[in-house]
Amino acid sequence: MTTFAILGRCLASPPPPDWRERLSGMLGARPRRMGTWAELGMYGALSCLADARETSLAPDALLMLGSRRGTCIPTRQALEQMRDDLPMPLTFLQTQPSQVLASLAAQMHWRGHAEFIAGGTPQALLHLAAAQCGRAGMLLGWVDETDGGSSRWLRLRPCAESGGDLVASAESAFSPDVTHIRLAGRGASAD
Asked: Burial code of 96-128, b = ≥16 C-beta within 10 A, e = fewer?
């Protein structure tokens, strides 16, 4: 059984109306060559780190991002462009979900282990990340640009057991009331 303390979170589902302006403020400039999906990911991750009072991750921390649909909107656009010719370079670039991981690493001046996982559920992503992370913990995100968009992130670090079990799915870990996540086998509890 592993317990993680939630050090920071971003629950932008949907993001606030001024999220793009906030992202530009965090970056010091408007992002370039990024699509909405990657911008949502950057906004959520940087907001989560700010909530955790961190500007970067330790080199041995894990950065893991998941999405049920990934970059489906730019992928559709690229396929439409391929009917006539090759897709435009910027459109093709926006189909690459790992683009946000490289951009985040550059923004944080961080070198470490980062992964994107397509499909599944936030609970499955959390279990996979928990099996891979070490003492520095993880920055875990779930991004979707459809239906108004969402960018939900948690900054988690392993900790000693905490008392008081409230059985919930890992999806409930994104609740603002949850302070700890306890993983045991396939189940998850949230305190």
From this structure: bbebbbebbbebbebebebebbeeeebbebbbb
